[in-house]
């Protein structure tokens, strides 16, 4: 539209040919490949950000996974998937994990008839999740669920009329949808 005379030459700032280089005087020195440490660290950070867990809590979960029987990486992801704030989000009671965490902390969620306000609580098979009887809590959850309800995973069962959910099984690796390589996480945390 309104380009200056300089854009008619090779010095045009908008259409430079060498834009593929990173900025800076020594851009040709920058490393383009990431080593094994960097790759492993990326996977750990991806999982921690996905579930909203900080480093100390993540290392506690990793220790639990190491002590458990089975593949450490799959057990770790199963433990993270069983967190109460994650389950509330998976059930569709909240639009995001942060909102699910807030709903749990504010006391809107009951587990086996008891009010829980810890988002890090690990649900077990057979646990029943329900909503507080207050009208405000019920209205908020119904607004989040919508008309049809969420598409649930095989280890969760939801009754939309009563607003109750049951944990029918433990989550397996097939239920966990994050594109992550758990073997890199185990290698990183085992150092």
What does this structure look like?
By secondary structure, the protein is an alpha+beta fold. It is 39% helix and 9% strand. The chain has 7 helices and 5 strands; from the N terminus they run H-H-H-H-H-E-E-E-H-E-E-H. The chain has a 5-stranded antiparallel β-sheet. Helix 2 (55-67) crosses helix 3. The longest helix is centred in the first third of the chain and has 16 residues, at 36-51. The model has no long low-confidence stretch (mean pLDDT 88).
Biggest sheet, in brief? 5 strands, antiparallel
- Binned, the helix content reads 25-40%
**Coarse shape:** extended
Structural class: alpha+beta
Radius of gyration: 23 Å
- What is the class in the CATH system? Alpha Beta
Number of domains in the coordinates? 1
Distance between the termini: 58 Å
CATH topology type: Structural Genomics Hypothetical 15.5 Kd Protein In mrcA-pckA Intergenic Region, Chain A
Average pLDDT confidence is 88
| Annotated CATH homologous superfamily | RNA-binding S4 domain
Q: How big a fraction of the residues is strand?
A: 5-15%
What kind of assembly state do the chains in view correspond to? single chain
* Low-pLDDT ranges: none
Name given to the CATH architecture: Roll
Give the neighbour order of strands across the main sheet. Answer: 2-1-3-5-4
Number of helices: 7
Number of strands: 5
Question: What are the secondary-structure elements, in order, as H or E?
Answer: HHHHHEEEHEEH
Blueprint of the fold:
Blueprint: H1 36-51, H2 55-67, H3 72-81, H4 84-90, H5 97-105, E1 109-111, E2 114-115, E3 128-131, H6 135-145, E4 156-159, E5 164-167, H7 182-189
Antiparallel strand pairs: 1-2, 1-3, 3-5, 4-5
């Amino acid at each position: 539209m309104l380009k200056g005379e300089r854009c008619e030459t090779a010095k045009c700032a908008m259409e430079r040919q060498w834009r593929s280089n990173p900025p800076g005087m020594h851009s040709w020195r920058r490393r383009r490949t990431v080593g094994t440490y960097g790759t492993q660290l990326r996977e750990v950070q991806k999982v921690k950000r996905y579930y909203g867990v900080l480093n100390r809590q993540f290392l506690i979960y990793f220790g639990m996974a190491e002590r458990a029987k089975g593949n450490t990486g799959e057990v770790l992801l199963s433990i993270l998937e069983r967190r109460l704030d994650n389950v509330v989000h998976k059930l569709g009671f909240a639009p995001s994990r942060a909102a699910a965490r807030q709903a749990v902390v504010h006391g809107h969620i009951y587990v086996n008839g008891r009010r829980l306000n810890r988002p890090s609580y690990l649900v077990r098979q057979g646990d029943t999740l329900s909503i507080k009887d207050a009208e405000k809590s019920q209205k908020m959850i119904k607004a989040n669920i919508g008309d049809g309800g969420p598409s649930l995973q095989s280890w969760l069962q939801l009754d939309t009329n009563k607003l109750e959910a049951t944990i029918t099984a433990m989550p397996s690796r097939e239920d966990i949808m994050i594109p992550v390589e758990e073997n890199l996480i185990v290698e990183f945390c085992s150092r």
